[in-house]
Amino acid sequence: MSNQTIKQPSKVLNNVLRIALYTVLLTMAAIYLMPFVVMLLTSLKDVEEIRSGTLLSLPSTLGFESWQKAWSSACTGSSCEGISPYFLNSFQIVLPAVAISTLLGALNGYVISLWKFKGSDLFFAALLIGCFIPFQVILLPMARTLGWLGIANTTTGLVFVHVVYGVAFTTLFFRNFYQSIPEELVKAARLDGAGFFTIFYRIILPVSIPIIVVTVIWQFTQIWNDFLFGVAFSGFDTQPVTVALNNLVNTSFGGKEYNVDMAAAIIAALPTLAVYVLAGKYFVRGLTAGAVKG
Amino acid sequence: MANLVIDNVKKRYGDTEILKGINISIAAGEFLILVGPSGCGKSTLMNSIAGLEEVSEGSILIADQDVTHSSPKDRDIAMVFQSYALYPNMTVAQNISFGLEMRKVPKEERDVEVERVAELLQINHLLNRKPAQLSGGQRQRVAMGRALARRPQLYLFDEPLSNLDAKLRVEMRTEIKKLHKKLGTTIVYVTHDQVEAMTLADRIAVMRDGEVQQLGTPQEIYDNPANLFVAGFMGSPAMNFIPATVVTGDDGAMLELATPNKTLLPFPKHESLQPYLGKSLLLGLRPEMITEPQAHKEGQKYVTTTAIEVEVTEPMGADTMVITRINNAEVNCRSNPAYPADAGSVINMMFDTSKAVVFNPTTGERVDV
Questions:
Q1: Backbone angles phi, psi at B365, to 5 degrees
Q2: Which terminal CB of chain A, N or C, has fewer other CB atoms within 10 Å?
Q3: What is the CATH number of domain A84-288?
Q4: Which intervals hold domain ABC transporter (chain B) (predicted)?
């Protein structure tokens, strides 16, 4: 009786709505992809073709010379080795910085959530303030600190800066995730005779995979894309790829080589792109996941 | 197996006292139940025994050894949690053997022990599963298995059955009782379910507001409650509390009920009521002590038959609860379903006061002791 009164939307209307939906989605996707497409097309053209002003047209001949040049022989300032050495620099900064900040965040979150001590909430609140401090504010004090520690202009120094700055965020992530783990799990393990680190390593870490993925993606993207700390605290040999990219674009002998600039920019963006493609589905899952069943 | 002594244990958080001097001691192999309403401190006391919380004062002895300040792992106890707290990343077998592994028991011995426990609890077929793949009842068994594997001196159960559905709860209750009979272990068991407390315990400690109200065998607690709170907490339906005036009658001090025909109830320890002549006290009478007239009890000393007005009846199958109002208090009577008792009618009921208790209405303490 009652299902007769419920009006079924007609098939036609249904299809129209569906088409409208896809149109909107495709338009949005196109808007977001357009800059990347232009970069890709430009990087494949030669300088002459770019000057003729056909921004969106396909390249007349496929040439990868600009990619080669960007990688190994373009000039960044006074040296002309392309961005490859700086690409490696970036990895040397990012890998340890991500690993250390993630591990510290996990330990902090573990303590704050599951080994509450007097003032642990206050400690967490203080740590949270770290998320709100703008980069620029700490430049000078950090420069003094790095100098005092004797690690100014070194890769170690940059790793240190990124770890210090990242721990606030990684702690927040892990703390929120561990809030959903019942404290009884830790109590049970303590009665079973496990200690602080054994519990962390044997019981807590194995259930933390989703949040580890989230943190790694977040930290990797943040640190890889960082320009300010890179330009402020790196030495000549330890510049990350973002700084080299800036130098490359700003260094010109004669005409501007847009194709090389574009190729270099894409190369610099590839690692973060790869991380998202490989682990992206865990990102959303990890941010929304919480309850540990057991 | 070990005895347990809790000596004047106090626990404070800032200014609030959660445990106000708890004294309990049980012999080896005894099944002690801590029972009480939420927030009475029973879980805190449990955590203190386990060493998960530091006590502020007093001492705890397990097997005559002072463990007040020992860490949980050195107390040789195992605990079953309300949420089971199984390690989600480990299989059932790994869950059971984890405690043994932490105590550096060799692999072969651990395997033997896992087999034994799995046999005992009939969970052999689950050994390779993860906790997430188990039902509530199965998780409960695994949680018990984890406790049994270490063969500790003392077992702690923290409301282990409260997450199970009603039928399974009754089954597991029986199972725990059988297990205790079989293994003869010392167990401390927290619950807020008074049926669980009655059925399982060798001894019950009824707690309220951080104090032990009474410590005794289930029958003592049921028949001889120390105060109004204990009397009201244990038993379902609860004990009837009828305000009644003490008067002088044929059997010394008697209690007066304003039933349709005024009734005077005799009382075994009537001397203890003498000081209260003319005053109002609370008569505590269990529902099964107010029944339909039974021929075999006729003429017994503390049995009185009188008419009451039926307010409503609740048939329960085995018995019918007849609800009436005496001296402005609602009174539950347990009668035979065959006995005619229609709402609004006046029927004869038999009051057996041989096990009645009397409380001071202001202090809640027993008068007749």
A1: -85, 160
A2: N
A3: 1.10.3720.10
A4: 4-234
